[in-house]
Structure formats: structure tokens, C-alpha cells
Amino acid sequence: MPPARRCSVAPTIRFPCPCRACSAMNKHIATLGPVFLFWISQLHDKLAYLHDTRGYKALYCARAGKRIQDLMDAYTGGNAPFSGDLFGISRIGACKVSAGDPAMFKTVYRVTAETLNHVSLADLCKAYFQHSWDETHPQMAALARLSQRFDEPNFRALIAANDPAARYFRDTMNQNREGLRQWFRENLGDLSGYVLVDSGWKASIQALLAEAYPEFGFLGLYFGVMDTRPLENRFGVIFDSPTYQPGRPSTVFALHRHLVESILEPNAPSIEDTLGGPQDALARAQLEQVRNETPDPVADRLFLDLRDYIAANAGKPIDQIEADYRAALPRVADLLIYPDREDAVALAGKDRSVDFGREGAIPVLADDTDCTPDERIQRSLWPQGQIALEYEGATARRLQAMASGAQDRDYFASHEKTDSAASAPSDKPAGWEGSVAIVTRTKNRPLLFRRAAASVAAQTYRNYRWVVVNDGGDVEPVRAIIGKSGVDPRLITLVSNPQSVGMEAASNMGVRAVDTEYVVIHDDDDAWEPDFLAASVSFLKSPRAAAARFEGVLSRAWRVSEQIVGDRVVIHKTEPYMTWVSEVSLAQMAVGNFFAPISFLYRRSVYDAIGGYDESLPVLGDWRFNLDFLLRANIGFLDRYLAYYHHRDMGDSSKDGVYANSVVGGQSLHAQYFSVVTNGILRDPETPPAMAAVIANGHLQRIMEMNFRNSANDRNKALRQLMDGASDATAKAPSGPASLPKEDADYIRACIRRAIPLSPSPRKLFSRLRWTGRVENIEQPHERMKWLPRVLHLIPSPPDFDHIAYLRDHPEIWATVYNGPDQLLPYHHWLMEGIDLGYERPRLKAGA
């Protein structure tokens, strides 16, 4: 008798005898069997059709593809009427064939960032090379020193860099790409294209392969699809929805997709090397391990019984298979939404294997005894099953309904179980119409957050869900303020991030944590009048809004100038904000953002269409979102002062710090990213021509306005100087070339001495003495400009110079000789031009 499975949370769960375990398993097979039989029968018919009509070959994407192929063999008796093969691939494997192509950077980064968070570029490189990682290799040793954070700008800079290590990274990825292309050609034979078969859920592999190899016309057939991003030729056989929709029981698998993954996961490692690439032999060995895996009679009992069920019922007429499937769906929904303790243990499945070059597994049901029951429920990959272990009877069913969306499910919402933006269900629960998601981002600012909580509590309109995203700060003060806010706890969702993910990612977490008709961002330092929500929702429900396609509404706001003094907020001045605004046009928005998030309430459906806030932007994410919004819908204007936009622009609180505004404490960053946003829109081939024209004209207008404003400011400054009796002699003259820091001057002199060693040879001795003398005064600007160009080839980049950061911040040099494959480096650009332009010398972290 196998050992009983045990959950460490109290009360302990056991199957005391095999009869009881068999009884539970038979119940589950009777419920799940018709669903899996219907899926395989539909998959069979679709693959046969694509083979006969379009000449497509099936590729079962291993690992899950191995067991899908086994289920298909059980259905067909091993005689499938179409061509199919096991295909060794994984998400990181698909990224490896694409990461060397700058044209595919956007997709590669998105797929990689979905898994790898809060890691360095070195960690990323280790994951990409994994089995071939060897830090004695000179280029891998250089990649191992990249301590910069893995984010979009730094990753883009790595791809753009032309130093030997970056070229080695790209060249290896391109070898993977060409090797797999050759494998595809040889495997295809006389057929015309491929259809990928996998469990689901976002079809990331298909998205990457379709971009990398358009000549093979990839299609994808999956058990289910859970993604709001459009992807051509992607089909979910059982369901296609990012969330569970009560009116569609097939979508219940969105609540516990790990059940499907567990059933289909073979006892073999992930195939993370690339067929045909530099690690082809290892990839083929990994594929053979998957091909020859043996299901465990205990851990894989559910898979084995489902395979037997399919084999035993494969002869049924297709209409009977579908009828059984339709009849089973309500039972499946009830089983996954309202499991009892035995169901939870039996259907938890195996621990979820991690991938992307990492090792380990994540338990589906949380078993940390140091946590509270509610914390375990939030951490669980199947909250409904976790609730069954924590609670009993009516209490358990009520909480399971909340976690599933049948009631106030948002109490148990957590970013750890939210993979994509949720779309509105077709059959909405009671109270959905008119509901508002209020998203508040906060981090260690209890003094301000307390005011925001009072603003929410004071609203006369009560159909809202308040989502608080504690973005890497101390959660206990947040909990305390929430508890004393006066807001009904049933209306509150707290998402607490162990580390900060940034403003835009935090906004997305908050919006996606609940399902409402409307959304508004209420930052922790701003406030509303009590009837802000009532007036805004009423406006969008009006016939006027429907007629004009107003999907959002903007109210007027007060600008509040304030200062933090000790533990008090001192308000210095309150004045109308942007008084010239009386309408919201795309043309004006193209010049720059002119309203604060606190004044703007909008429909969630437009957010879903956009895909959320751009998480790659550290600032100006709301401006980019507003541009995308106006491209799709109109924004109405409510001529009432209903919001307060607070600025800590007085005293120390205006500096970069915990209480600073992003628009005050990060003004230089805003200025830098205006061009980043506009350039990104203009470069995007999917940007409509009209939108590109508006953005280009708006950016030109903004430049003209800035030049005029700067010119006017200069004239005013000169006039004030004259009026104050200032003489022309006090006017600043151009500073000219800057001096070289002593540490770099010493470094350059040391490089020269090493490059021209002391030698008995008179010629070499003279050369050493001559160049040592010429660079003796290299700190002086004119000496640097005179002699340094002649010896740059002798000066390598210092170990502490962060060339990735320099390339990230100055992409204008990517296509210049200073990022070339030969001798000139980003460090040389800083020496020759960056110092005089005022560019900061970026440094690697100590010990990197």
C-alpha cells in the first residue's frame, strides 16, 4: 500500500484505506473522463481536417505533448489518420531561437519577463545558457558580471551592445534559430506547415515560433486559452477565456489549470535546449527521456485512469461523446469550485515544476504552517482547494464562491494567481453593472495613505471594490490603516508585493485583481470630493455618453501644494489645476498628458482592449495609456471640481524620496521618457498612420512650446538681472570641455604603462617614455582632447564601468563606432564626448 498523501496544514488529510481512495478516484474519473474524451475527439477531428485540407503536420509540444499523444493513441488505437511527431520545445527554448533578432525583442522580453522577475542580467544569461554555462569561458565570465537588473531597457541594451560578450550571446541565439529552422525543414517532408498541440494557456511558444519562422505557418490547438492578447491561428478546444465565467462552465478550468498541467506532465525534465542548435545532442537526449517516460502508478493515477477511460469509450458516436461532455460540465464546475477535503487532496495533482532554466517545484496547495489560513489561500495555486483544507461546511462554500467570482471573490484576489488581464464575463454577477475598481498603489507612505483611505470611505457611491497594492513596502501599517478606514472589509482587496514592481505593474495588478465595469486610479497621496464616484458613474451611464461614445470621464481638479513637516502634512496653497481644459482630444494629448489619474474614471473594457498599462515605462505610463485610450474611445468632461491633485513641491518633501511625487521628484526622468514613448509609438508597425501623424505633430508642437518657454525664461532671467543691477560680467560663459576625473586619469596612465612595457629595446623604451609623458596631464580638457584619441585602442573598459547602463541611457550611440565590433567602446564615447555633454559615469555595483 503506497504511503498516504499528507497536507501539513491542520487538520491533517489522509486516505486511511485504499478503498476510500479508489472511490474518490472513480468519482473524479466519471466527472473528468467525458471532458478529456471530448477534448481528444475534437483534437483528432481538427488535426485530421488540417492534414487532409492544408497538409499540416501535428507537433506535440513536449513535455505535455507526450501525454497528449498517449491519449490520442488511446483514442485511435495508435492509428491516427494524420501525421504527427513529438516536438522537444519549451518557452525558454522558443525564446532562445528569437533573442538574437532585435525585431523580435518585444515578444522575447514579454515571455521571459512573465517568469523571470527581480533577477539580474547575469541570472538571465545563466538561464538562457543553463547546461552549457561555464564561467571559465571568457565571454560567459563577462556575462556573469552583468549585475544590472533584468528589465526591458537593460535587456534591450544587452541585445544592442557590440562588445564580445553581447555578440557571443546573440550569435549563440542565432545558431539556435538556424539550427531549429533546419530541423523544421527536415521534419516537415512533403507537408506544408505545422500545427502545435499543447495544454495551453497563452500560446507563448506559438507566438515566438510564428514570428521567427513565418514560412511554416504555425497554428495552435490547446486544451484552453487564457490570454487577452490577440494571436492569429490560436484555438482553445475546451475554452478561451482569461477567467472563470459563471455562465460558461467550461471556463472553470481557468480556476485550476494546474489540474490539467499535472495530468499531462510526464516524469521527465523540461526540454530547454534547442534541436539543431549548439546543444543539439543534449536536446535530443532530453527529448528521448520524455519519449520514454513511465507514468507513476500512484502519482499519475489520474492520468492512467483517464487514458483507460478514453480507450474504453473511443468507439462511442461523436454526438454521444458531446452529450456526455455537456452533461459533465456542471459537475466539473461544482467539483473545482466547491471541492471537499478529499477532492482537494485528490485533485491537487503534482507540485508545479518551474522552468526557464530554474530548478524546483511549487506546491499547488500551500502548506506553510507559519502563515494564517487567509495567507495560505492567497498563496495557493488552487484557492478553492486550499479553502477546503482550511474551513468546513457553509463557511468553506461561501469562501469558495467568493474566490471563484460567484460572490465577492476579490477578498482572496492575489497577483500571484493572476496571469493576465481579466475580461468581463458574459453573464455578470449581481451588482457588476455600475461597479468601480478603485486601485491605490502605496509604499511606506502611511501619512498620505491614511488620507487616501478617508477619501475612499467618504464616497457616497458604494458599489466599488477598493484594491490596495502594497508595492514592496511594510504591509502592517497598510493593514492597520485599512482596518480603521471605515470601508467595508468585504469591499477591500489587499495585494502585497514582496518587492516593488513599479507603478504601471502595480496598477495592472490592482485592475486585474477584481472584475468591475469601471476603473479609477486613486494614488495614495490624492483625494476626492465625496460625490466623485457618483457623478462620474452617472455621467457614463447617461444617454449623452452613449451617443458620443464616451468610455471615460474627466472631472476638474484642485492642485494642492503641500509639504511634509514631521508627521504632519502642511498645505500651503490650493488652486484650480489646468483651468484651460474643457475637452479631451487625442491631438492635445499627443502634446503631453494634461490630467491626473485621480480625475479620470473609465470603462474596464477599454483597459482590456489596450492590454493594460505599459510596464516597461518607469514614468509616463498613464500618458501612454491615455493615448491608447483616445485611439479607441472618447473621454467626456465633467465641469465640476471633484478631485484633489496633491504636489509636495515645498521643502524637503519635494526631493527624490519616499514622499516625493513622481512628477516632482522625477522631473528629469519624465523629460527623458517623452521621446521614449513617442519613438516607441512611431516605430511600432501596428500604429495606425493617423495616430503616427498626430503623435509626430504633437511632439513637434511640444518642442516648439518648450523652446519658446525656455527662451522666454531666459529673457525674463536676463531682465531680472538687469533690474537687480547685475552686470554683464556675472553672466555665465560657456564652460567648455570638462576635466577628466582623477580615477579615470590614473586608470588611463596605468593602461598606457601596461600596454607599452619597459624593455631594453631603445625603440620601445622611447615609445613608453613618450606616451607616458603625453598622458601625464590627461586630466586637463585640452590635453585629453589632443592625445586621448591616439591611444584609445590601448584602453579597455574599466571593470566598474556599466556599459549596459550607458547604452540603455544613450541609445543614440548604438549604431556608431563607439558600439562597434572592433576597438571603440561605450567607455571611449564617455571619455571623448560624454564628459563634455554632462553624461553620468555609470558604475557597476560593488563586488559585481
User: Strand fraction band?
Assistant: 5-15%
Q: Architecture of one domain in CATH? A: Alpha-Beta Complex
Number of helices: 33
CATH fold type of one domain:
Spore Coat Polysaccharide Biosynthesis Protein SpsA, Chain A
In the CATH hierarchy, what is the class of one domain?
Alpha Beta
**Overall outline:** globular
Helix content: 40-55%
Number of E-type strands: 16
Largest sheet: 9 strands, mixed
- Kindly name the structural category: alpha/beta
Through-space gap between termini: 53 Å
CATH-wise, what's the superfamily of one domain? Answer: Spore Coat Polysaccharide Biosynthesis Protein SpsA, Chain A
Poorly predicted regions = 1-24, 407-426, 663-667, 726-735
| Rg measurement, Å | 31 Å
Averaging pLDDT over every residue, what do you get?
81
What's the short story on this structure?
By secondary structure, this protein is of the alpha/beta class. The strands form three sheets. Strands 8, 9, 10, 11, 12, 13, 14, 15 and 16 form a nine-stranded mixed sheet that branches. It has a five-stranded parallel sheet with strand order 2-1-3-4-5. It has a two-stranded antiparallel ribbon with strand order 6-7.
